[in-house]
Amino acid sequence: MISVFLSDPFSDPADPLIILSLMAIPLLTAFVVGTVGRGKTTLFLYRKSPHGVRRFVKARLLQVLLVSVPVAATVMAASTMLVPHVTVPSILINVALASLRTVAFGVFLFGLALLIPIFAEGSRERAFGAIINAQIALFSTIGLEIGFSRLGLNVKRMFPGLETIAGLWLDHLVQTVIVSLAGIVLLYLGKRKLDRIE
To answer: How far apart are CA 115 and CA 3, in angstroms?
Structure first.
C-alpha cells in the first residue's frame, strides 16, 4: 500500500526494495511472529513433551516462512513492476532479496520474542509486545541504513566502478546478513532462556 499510493512513482528498480525493506517487511514479519505464547501453561506443555521447545521454535519459524515470505514476495513483485522499463532480472532480484530480508527478520523477531517473552492471556498485552518488537526491528533497519551511509560502508563507495543498482542490491544483502546473524544470536539466547523458565 505504501508503494502504490506514493505521489512520486518509483524511477529505479531498487526504490521498491529500499522503501519496503525499511518499513513494510519488518512490520509484516513482526505481526506474523507476534509474541511467544498465550501463557506459561502453554510453554510448560511444550517443555514436557520430548523435544517440545525445539519443535515449537521450528514450527514458529516455519509459520514465518509460509505466511510472511509469500506476502512480501508478492508485494515486492507488484511494486517493482510499477517501475518504468523494469527488466525481469530486476524483478527476480528484488523478490529474492525481499524474501531473504523477511526470513532474516523472522529469525530476528522470533529470537527477540523468545528473549523477552510476554506471557499474557489478553490479546492487548500480546499486541503491545508485538508492537514493541516491530519498533525495535524498524529502528534497527533505519540504524543500519544510516550507519552504513555515515560510516562509508556502502559497497558503491568501496567499489566505485560498480553500477549504482548493483551497489544498492549488495548493500541490502550485507545488511540482511547482519540482521540474520543478530537473529541467530537472539534465537539461541531466547531458546536457552525458554528452557530455563520455571
So the answer is: 33
